[in-house]
User: Which sequence fits this backbone?
């Protein structure tokens, strides 16, 4: 699948581009099934559903009967130097085949080494060597799932002196070489920018938005570091921050609507609170589409 173009533009159903959703949490199941929420989708972590059957699959089947799904992997270790775990990859591919999700994604990170698995999404240096490794791994995943993968930009807390590429250039080159799409996590952008004393706006100005197939929004926490510099943690344990909403609005004003998902993975609130975050994203999407329509009309009238 090397070099296959990712289709994020005009050939995608406009209604699908305006999907909004949330991470699926089992405590919300009954309410979600009774909700009849329109133009919505739910995301699950692939590794929670890699068994053959049982309650997890009964639950996921019930959700899939009413809503589109997004399958989000967290343990593939695409950025690691070792070969991908073929057993894990096969289970991932079977899950994709079983549920036919509208979106499939993984992280630009590594999480295993020498058969040791870490409960973290760890960063990697942006070099020509790691670029080739990541591209090889993505080609392998896309071959297994028979469709393009979306690769998510990371939240980072350190930078490597050995890096010789900017993160946005690294992601652009991965997408160009493999034909994969990108999952733009705007909270990750903001967290990393604050942690490294950089500009989130400048990062997004250089991001290849034409390769984006989905957007993630989430809340973050702030740690009291030993220095005066702020340290943000991508904690997914609270509402989306105002600064992240502003970045999101700017992105969709520039590039148009994308399926948008709210991640909230700990200190999970009651369903109405979580749903309200997704509905807020939909308000931004609808407003951006309306403004773009008005701009097109104004251009036509001017001509």
Assistant:
């Amino acid at each position: 699948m090397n070099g296959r173009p990712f289709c994020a533009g005009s050939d995608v159903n406009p209604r699908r581009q305006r999907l909004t959703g949330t991470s699926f949490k089992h405590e919300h199941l009954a309410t979600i099934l009774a909700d009849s929420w329109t133009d919505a989708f739910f995301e699950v972590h692939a590794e929670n559903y890699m068994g053959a059957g049982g309650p997890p699959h009964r639950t996921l089947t019930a959700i899939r009967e009413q809503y589109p799904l997004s399958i989000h992997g967290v343990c593939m270790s695409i950025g690691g130097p070792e070969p991908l775990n073929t057993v894990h990859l096969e289970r991932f591919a079977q899950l994709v085949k079983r549920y036919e999700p509208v979106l499939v994604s993984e992280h630009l990170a590594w999480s295993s080494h020498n058969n040791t698995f870490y409960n973290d999404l760890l960063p990697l240096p942006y070099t020509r060597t790691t670029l080739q490794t990541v591209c090889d791994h993505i080609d392998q995943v896309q071959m297994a799932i028979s469709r393009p993968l979306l690769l998510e930009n990371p939240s980072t807390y350190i930078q490597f002196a050995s890096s010789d590429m900017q993160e946005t250039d690294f992601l652009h080159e991965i997408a160009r070489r493999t034909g994969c799409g990108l999952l733009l996590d705007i909270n990750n952008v903001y967290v990393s920018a604050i942690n490294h004393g950089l500009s989130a706006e400048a990062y997004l100005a250089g991001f290849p938005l034409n390769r984006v197939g989905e957007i993630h929004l989430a809340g973050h926490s702030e740690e009291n570091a030993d220095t005066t510099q702020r340290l943000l943690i991508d904690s997914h344990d609270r509402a989306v921050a105002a600064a992240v909403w502003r970045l999101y609005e700017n992105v969709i004003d520039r590039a148009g609507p994308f399926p948008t998902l709210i991640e909230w993975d700990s200190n999970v609130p009651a369903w109405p609170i979580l749903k309200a975050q997704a509905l807020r994203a939909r308000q931004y999407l609808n407003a951006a589409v309306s403004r773009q329509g008005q701009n097109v009309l104004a251009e036509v009238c001017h001509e």
